[in-house]
Amino acid sequence: MAAIAIFFLLGNGPKITFPNNPSPGAETPMNLTLSIKDITVNKIDDGKASVQVIFDAYNPNRNSAILETIQYSVYVGQFRMVFGDIGESPEGMVSSQAGSFTIVGNSTITLSQRPAPVAVRNNLTASAWDSMFTDDAKFRVEGSYSSRTIARLEQTANINDFSLTFP
What tens digit of pLDDT does each residue of 40-78 get? Predict the structure, then answer.
């Protein structure tokens, strides 16, 4: 029995090799994909309206991603009607992630700002403001979002710009 043990220990026994494949999730992380699910405009009075932008954020990676912030402006024609922020950027190395959103790999979450930002009607923006209440209104939403992905035990921070139209 001792001879068999020495035979294996000295290297003449079967060898176990592991393939040189990267671990699952070791691919280079891809950016999140933002889209607009809906824009809802509610008239408050003759000079004010809330503009609720509902975003879908898709994580195309196998690993989870953290969406920290979305900063955006809503335009009708050439006029910026509202601007808003969703989420919070963490401050420092040990800050809370309470204002961030975790998106599991290959899934989508829906986000909106609460309360909705308010658009104010004035002489300059009157026609654009009025058009927000018709079915032919075209919205342009521009901004940036910050996110973090984790792959190969490394965190990658991203800030990406976007420009979306609705409908």
Answer: 999 999 999 999 999 999 999 998 999 999 999 999 999
Whole-angstrom distance, CA of residue 16 vs CA of residue 80: 64
Domain count, the chain: 1
Report the CATH number at residue 52: 2.60.40.1470
Which residues, in sequence order, are CB contacts of 124 under 8 Å at separation 6+? Answer: 79
Buried/exposed code over 101-110 (b: 16+ C-beta within 10 A; e: otherwise): bebeeeeeee
68, burial (CB in 10 Å: exposed 0-12, middle 13-18, buried 19+): buried
Element (H, E) at 8: helix 2-9
The separation between CA 72 and the C-alpha centre of its own chain, rounded to angstroms, equals 12
Q: Concatenated DSSP letters for 46-103?
A: TTEEEEEEEEEEEE-SSS-EEEEEEEEEEEETTEEEEEEEEE-PPPSSS---TT-EEE
Is residue 146 helix, strand or coil?
strand
Cis, bond preceding 90 (omega within 30 deg of 0): no
